[in-house]
Amino acid sequence: MTVMEQRDTYRPAPPPAWQPRTDPAPLLPDAEPYRVLGTPAADEAAAADPGLLRRLYAEVVRGRRYNAQATALTKQGRLAVYPSSTGQEACEVAAAMVLADQDWLFPSYRDTLAVVGRGVDPVEALTLLRGDRHTGYDPYAHRVAPLSTPLATQLPHAVGLAHAARLKGDDVVALAMIGDGGTSEGDFHEALNFAAVWRAPVVFLVQNNGFAISVPLAKQSAAPSLAHKAVGYGIPGRLVDGNDAVAVHQVLSEAVRHAREGNGPVLVEAITYRLDAHTNADDATRYRESSEVDAWRDHDPVLLLERELTARGVLDEDAIGAVREDAEAMAADLRARMNQDPEIDPMELFAHVYAEPTPQLLEQQAMLRAELEAEAHPQQEGTAR
Amino acid sequence: MTTGTSLGTAVDSAVAVQQTAMAQALNRALRDSMAEDPSVHVLGEDVGTLGGVFRITDGLAAEFGDHRCTDTPLAEAGILGTAVGMAMYGLRPVVEMQFDAFAYPAFEQLISHVAKMRNRTRGAMPLPITVRVPYGGGIGGVEHHSDSSEAYYMATPGLHVVTPATVADAYGMLRQAIASDDPVVFLEPKRLYWGKDAWDPQDPAPVEPIGKAVVRRTGRSATLITYGPSLPVCLEAAEAARAEGWDLGVVDLRSLVPFDDETVCAEVRRTGRAVVVHESGGFGGPGGEIAARITERCFHHLEAPVLRVAGFDIPYPPPMAERHHLPGVDRILDAVGRLQWEAGD
């Protein structure tokens, strides 16, 4: 047959077979954020483990008090700055509670509450923000990475650590925390991609609190939700009401289990709201209406849990009183210890730049020592020259 | 591409020592480090199956497995960022940045975490990471493949910044870098990769530790101070200078951080004249720091200002014009000629 004769029967050869490499359907987040409080799921939760609900309540109340105390300390000049997580306590508390002892937490600068939840001393958790030292705690003591100020940069660390643990055959999950603004950073993308390719046991928790300092989410992302971003990496995305402590606890527990069982990472977006300004140095009235804040005050994580648990009889007035008393005692201790002046040893500035100081640092150290000696004995300064 | 210049060890024994390329010595260093220490992991782009675009990681994945020599997704911040996490968990990652200019996406991780983690955690969390960066020009690379990025790294406290110029140093210094508990930016002069030298992989010659400069040639008239890709050029210049009646010494810095003031100043005090030579641009480049250090320490020994022969302060030129940019023998000798010679010097 000639080409002309073939033309009615000619079909182009199909390209090599193509199909999606992963079925996207099971990775998609639910249409609505998952909720427990005020839904039938609350019956089940209350019946299954009322003790857990009481613990969650005690922790969010302590968390709220901690935020208030730390903010007060900024006004008294005892903290250089405090990025409050008021309104986000359910996420902070649950993130710490769902981890096993050997697991690791990778907090951002707004996550001191989660750090304290891991067992870090509340004063040591604030050392960075007091300004006497960079990181007040030993990361290995409670398996908590230093609070990370550069946005999203701690996420690849979580991936590398979880990957390394898996290579060594250790049962370790890393939970990395980030805000909505941070999801625009390249490191967010790279961390999720590496974790997915390596099937690293990492849970990424995005607290979508509505604002990156002043910039609302609409100017940050055009994604259907931040949880939907997971699908692009071939990992599951989950959407949860971040002010529903029980729901956050359940979703994060499930994500940690998923990761621990070798199924790879999970991205969780918790919808919450930053009730306070970005930090004590910020003025939130410049970029949002008080009516918006008031609406979220009605959906407050502490109130939501208190109402639900009281209505169910899981909490009574005595129990609430005891929890508040405990939170006050924690705040009093924090206040008392933060009111002591930290001791600064200027010579320590050179101590941990390298394993061994370079000759250049030794020279500079000697210069500072001489300056300190001159400061201590000002009357000798003239004769020394 | 410049062919290698034989440096250091002269073969005067009857048994001919094997000729080895710097690339092979680097490969050997990685292999020996991985064999010796199971916590050493290599990661980067194309480092596994391909063995790296320069073949420095050739055979490592086959010998140690993909989990020890890992092809990562193509994202430098992710590579270095995950290496940070691996180091936090007790591994000793060796990261390959494919080319000098491709390392820039990893800058934030390098500056904000790799360099600072020990300090931020008051010594609790050191990061023993080696960042290998093929750097410099002279290989006919198109744009973004020939940068001299050392000044950026030098300006960051917490990093060691080293660069070998000989085959023996390539092996010895990479072993030292991997064994170091501090992060090391290991700059590999890519135009010296295939230069060969007498070097026995079965019996690697010991080398000076990181932080020490080495006098490659002693001279009486003036001292050339250099490192990495410019060392062979300086040695050639020193040889050519004999015809002009100059006896030039050559110091190979090897380590930019820590800096060996002692060796450099001892040489300059002897000769009284110094020229710093590097490919990196002169303005804000390493030579300014080195000249200042020499002036501060050796002022009364100096017969002339310390001069710099550097790359021009321009974006790295296209390959067909790069020879005009790179410091060459003539430009070095011109600088030596400007060292205020007087009759009798």
UniProtKB/TrEMBL annotation, chain A:
Map out region (Disordered) in residue numbers. 1-32
InterPro entries hit by this protein: Alpha-ketoacid_DH_E1_comp, DH_E1, PdhA/BkdA, THDP-binding
Q: What keyword terms does UniProt attach to this protein?
A: Oxidoreductase, Pyruvate, Thiamine pyrophosphate
Q: Does the keyword Oxidoreductase apply?
A: yes
Q: Name one Pfam family in it.
A: E1_dh
As cofactor, the record names: thiamine diphosphate
**The Dehydrogenase E1 component domain covers which part of the protein?**
67-344
Q: What is this protein called?
A: Pyruvate dehydrogenase (Acetyl-transferring) E1 component subunit alpha
Gene that specifies this protein = pdhA
UniProtKB/TrEMBL annotation, chain B:
Query: What GO molecular-function term can you cite, just one?
Result: oxidoreductase activity
Q: What is this protein called?
A: 3-methyl-2-oxobutanoate dehydrogenase (2-methylpropanoyl-transferring)
Report the CDD domains cross-referenced here.
TPP_PYR_E1-PDHc-beta_like (cd07036)
Q: Which Gene3D superfamilies match?
A: 3.40.50.920, 3.40.50.970
Report the top EC class in one word: oxidoreductase
Q: Where is the Transketolase-like pyrimidine-binding domain?
A: 20-195
Q: Which organism is it from?
A: Streptomyces fragilis
Q: Identify the Pfam families for this entry.
A: Transket_pyr, Transketolase_C
* Keywords carried by this UniProt record: Oxidoreductase
EC number of the protein: 1.2.4.4
Record's keyword annotation contains Iron-sulfur? no
Domain of life according to the entry: Bacteria
Enumerate the cofactors the protein uses: thiamine diphosphate
